[in-house]
């Protein structure tokens, strides 16, 4: 774990624990690169403008990520967090002096078993930003798992499906993929998967989705940098179709996307 290229101390991390204001992205490092690296950096820049109102030097961020990634064994998950340790709860409006924290952990092997989801009414604060305020999302995941499910699925107060705690969801309906129109994080993996879907000739739509309106026989899958593409077996007591051949095509197409170089050969 490094802050601006140097080992992070407990004092450096105090603001993340006590103030918890910032944003991040998580990428999977494989073969010296990252799928959609440019999209991840673009999102960091966009979120930085939204939270701090300042420009983010993405070339510097790339260099800091490369500095730590060069010393880890892939596959690994790198998290890049942008925050200001000097901001306080009392004075959060001070001019930001941004710091970049890069942390790494081993990457779990991709899981392919279908998920069972528990639908809950929940909306993340500022859902279009990948911010560090994870309390609500983690709590909903914890409650779903303690109830015997694999994860939670968020439904907004209007009854529309939006997203999961750390992933996007797509539905397979009559040969099309439907992405929820409700407010949610625009995921990089979902965006990359759009190219895969276009390549296999599968139409894509963004539509309002209510669980009670889903037709019998539809399917669903979740996407993120950590899980790739993973099918959904059921939402609460509603079973969904799991088409192994289709999901394998989506997974294989995603894994075939060439990583953008992060490490220097």
Automatic annotation (TrEMBL):
One of its GO terms (cellular component) is cytosol. GO terms for biological process: 4-aminobenzoate biosynthetic process. Keywords: Aminotransferase, Lyase, Transferase. The keyword Translocase does not apply. It comes from the Bacteria. SUPFAM superfamilies: D-aminoacid aminotransferase-like PLP-dependent enzymes. The keyword Cell membrane does not apply. One of its GO terms (molecular function) is transaminase activity. It holds the Pfam family Aminotran_4. NCBIfam families: PRK09266.1. Belongs to the class-IV pyridoxal-phosphate-dependent aminotransferase family. This is Branched-chain amino acid aminotransferase/4-amino-4-deoxychorismate lyase.
């Amino acid at each position: 774990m490094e802050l601006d290229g140097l080992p992070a101390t407990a004092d450096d991390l105090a603001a993340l624990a006590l103030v918890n204001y910032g944003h991040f992205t998580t990428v999977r490092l494989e073969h010296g690169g990252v799928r959609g690296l440019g999209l991840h950096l673009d999102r960091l820049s966009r979120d930085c403008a939204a939270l701090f109102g300042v420009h983010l030097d993405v070339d510097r961020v790339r260099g800091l990520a490369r500095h730590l990634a060069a010393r880890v064994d892939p596959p690994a998950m790198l998290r890049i967090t942008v925050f200001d340790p000097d901001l306080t709860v009392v004075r959060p409006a001070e001019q930001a002096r941004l710091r970049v924290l890069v942390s790494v952990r081993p990457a779990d092997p991709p899981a392919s078993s279908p998920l069972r989801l528990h639908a809950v009414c929940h909306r993340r604060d500022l859902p279009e930003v990948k911010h560090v305020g994870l309390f609500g999302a983690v709590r909903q995941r914890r409650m779903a798992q303690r109830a015997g499910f694999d994860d939670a699925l968020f439904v907004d107060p209007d009854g529309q499906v939006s997203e999961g705690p750390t992933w996007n969801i797509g539905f397979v309906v009559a040969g099309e993929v439907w992405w929820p129109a409700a407010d949610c994080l625009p995921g990089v993996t979902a965006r990359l998967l759009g190219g895969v879907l276009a390549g296999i000739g599968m139409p894509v739509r963004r539509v309002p989705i209510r669980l009670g309106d889903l037709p019998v026989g539809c399917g669903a899958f979740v996407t993120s940098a950590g899980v790739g593409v993973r099918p959904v077996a059921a939402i609460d007591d509603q079973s969904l179709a799991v088409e192994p051949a289709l999901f394998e095509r989506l997974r294989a197409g995603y894994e075939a996307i060439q990583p953008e170089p992060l490490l220097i050969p």
